[in-house]
Amino acid sequence: MPSTLHETLIEMFRERPALAAEVLTGPFGVSVPTFDQALASSSDLSAVMSTEYRADAVITFLSQGEPVHAVIVEVQLGPIEKKRRSWPAYVANLHSRLGCPVQLLIVCPGASIARQCAEPIVVSEPGLSLTALVLGPDAVPVVTDSVTARRNPELTILSALAHARTKRHRAPVLEAFLAGLDIFDQEHAELYADVVLAALPKAARAHLEVLMTTTPHRYQSDFARRYFAQGEARGEARAVLAVLEARGIDISEEARERIADCADIDQLDVWIRRAATVTKADELFA
């Protein structure tokens, strides 16, 4: 079953298909034809009367409505042997469908898997092989300043995943990561923060949590303040409900929702104190 990290990395390309062009022209220096539209296309790359082939994401670049370039995006976090047999079919089938150049881009946060993905896939001898562009730790740019982070927030997320593991880059990379999160809406910013926190090793995760929770810290972003304020509110709401439940007091669905949805820490503190003495849940709100 695909992991949350796997699905989140795919979603970044689906949400903003032009990201694929930025990756090709940036880290890889690949020339992409001029286009006026980038679309996340169907990921079904099966040929008629053939085995089903389904890529993680397919990005098609259009000029005046016609495809001029396409990128198959694959996120690879684990063993690749079966995928290496499928990837040439992905490229061939999409090329047959669109009639334009097709590139295979593999996003791979792990260095050892990235090296395996970068090895050419020999289809036949002589002369027919497929070499993917692999966005592994060595290819991901080290983003350390807030201006670049806000201009390229998705690459900044990849930078945090790739480079925050090393002590040398940890602090500036995570500071830039927080700055980049301010560009996203709250839902996506929370998702990316959760995924990066879960994916980082213990030392890097602890460093990021300090940056996000230390109010005087000069790098704390607007998002970080909202993220942990909401987290604190959820904890306080759970405490209110826990006290009521421990005392055997019935809680209506309406009251439960009102408590759970409250984001006012001061109000929740009042409710926690009242929860220790009330005889009915509704008395909390008096």
Automatic annotation (TrEMBL):
Report the domain of life of the source organism: Bacteria
Q: Which PANTHER family match?
A: SLL0800 PROTEIN, SLL6017 PROTEIN
- What is the official name of this protein in its record? Transposase
